[in-house]
Amino acid sequence: MAINEPAAEMIPNARLVWLDGVAHLPQLEADPRMLDEIADFVDALASGTS
Amino acid sequence: MRSYGETTYETEEGWSPVTDAVAVLDAAVIQKAVVIASSLGGRDAVDLTLAYPDRVAALVLIGTAMRGAPYPDLLQGPTAELNAKIEAAESAGDLDEINRLEAWMWLDGPAASEGRVTGPARELFLEMNAHALRAEWIPARRPRSHRPGHDLGEIAVPTLIMVGRLRRRGHCGDQRTRR
Q1: CB burial readout B57-89, b (16+ within 10 A) else e
Q2: What is the pLDDT of residue B77?
Q3: Yes or no, beta carbons of B63 and A28 under 8 Å apart
């Protein structure tokens, strides 16, 4: 069991996303899925839909 | 965080990563921010959110350490095997070998082949990690959370948690680690 799975269940308004093909530092690999997820997350916050 | 990037680690009475983060927000005149944090920084971001909920609009946690979540067993498998090699290198005081092995652990992923990640990303990791390894950073003296043993259920802001599938299993800031 990974530590982030129960954490995502314990935080009331959390969403867990698994990133394929990267390890612990997806930001160093400029993982496009990670960047898209952050952009969508921030857009949803700005539009009040999060 | 102190000792990361080009910063230095200096012991200071009353210092904590959380008070540092608040100082940065204050200096930038930012009342509330979307906080994006990775690894050990994620633990500090969680601590910041719980200690100063009026300063955090939302959280993005990438492969984060997390106090307050159950910690898995790591007694076997590729993570444990690589950890043993890192510990041996630490015992020998071989910082270059530690750096090489930690690039495998954290950048490639312990179950992946060493060198999976190449080019500028690997060069950047090795440069930053070498800096951190040579910093006089003593984990045991790192300030604890403002609220040790906190309940993650108290986090009220929208939170996005992302985890690489090739990651080291069971990353946790309470274990020995520099990330």
Answers
A1: bbbbbbbbbbbbbeebeeeeeebeebbeebeeb
A2: 84
A3: no
pLDDT score of A48: 84
Between residues B131 and A40, the one the model is more confident about: A40
* 10-residue mean pLDDT series, chain B (179 residues): 73 82 96 94 92 96 75 72 93 95 95 95 94 68 52 93 79 41
- Nearest 10 degrees: CA dihedral of A29, A34, A36, A38? -120
Domain that holds residue A36: 21-50
| Domain contains A10 | no
Pick among B162, B169, B179 to test the A interface (most A CBs inside 10 A)? B162
CB B82 within 8 A of CB B114: no
Decide if A7 is inside a domain.
Answer: no
Across the interface, which of A3, A13, A17 has its CB nearest the CB of B66?
A3
**Domains in chain B and their CATH numbers?**
17-162 (3.40.50.1820)
pTM confidence score:
0.84
